């Protein structure tokens, strides 16, 4: 009976994850913003709805040019669908900042092994670095907001 329950719960979880994938498409590996927004309507719609306050705009403009943001996310992940468009809108304000979008499968992996190397366990995970040194990570959702959390990393 215990095995039947385990199999049933596993099947239900798998079905839920697959049902959350956009048209069964799951991006895996490096992807750019234009591709993501063109191919995944949930991300595109959320991106169009993002609005930053004047205070947030001012904070982002003060970030150093050498700041780097690596985003590990899943196109199937509701947290990613909520947070990644916000980060993309922020990064669009500062195109000189270095950024990478790395899409992961439901096992939180991708062919080049970058997620494994970075110890990624949850999506999205935003890894913030400056001059090759990791300042901090935002995992699944920010403490305050993406802008406030990154600004706090920079101040700390």
From TrEMBL:
UniProt cross-references to InterPro entries, sorted A to Z: Thioredoxin-like_sf
Which UniProt keywords are listed?
A: Signal
SUPFAM superfamilies per UniProt: Thioredoxin-like
What is the top-level taxon of the source organism?
A: Bacteria
The stretch of residues making up the signal peptide is: 1-21
Q: Name one Pfam family in it.
A: Thioredoxin_9
This protein is called Thioredoxin family protein
């Amino acid at each position: 009976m215990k095995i039947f329950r385990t199999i049933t719960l596993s099947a239900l979880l798998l079905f839920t994850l697959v049902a959350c994938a956009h048209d069964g498409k799951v991006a895996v590996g490096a992807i750019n913003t234009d591709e993501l927004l063109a191919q995944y309507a949930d991300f595109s719609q959320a991106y169009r709805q993002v609005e930053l306050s004047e205070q947030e705009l001012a904070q982002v403009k003060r970030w150093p040019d050498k700041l780097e943001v690596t985003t590990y996310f899943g196109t199937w992940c509701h947290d990613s669908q909520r947070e990644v468009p916000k980060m993309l809108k922020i990064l669009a304000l500062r195109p000189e900042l270095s950024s990478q979008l790395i899409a992961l499968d439901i096992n939180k992996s991708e062919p080049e092994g970058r997620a494994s190397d970075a110890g990624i366990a949850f999506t999205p995970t935003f890894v913030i670095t400056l001059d090759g040194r990791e300042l901090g990570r935002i995992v699944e959702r920010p403490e305050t907001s993406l802008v406030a959390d990154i600004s706090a990393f920079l101040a700390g």
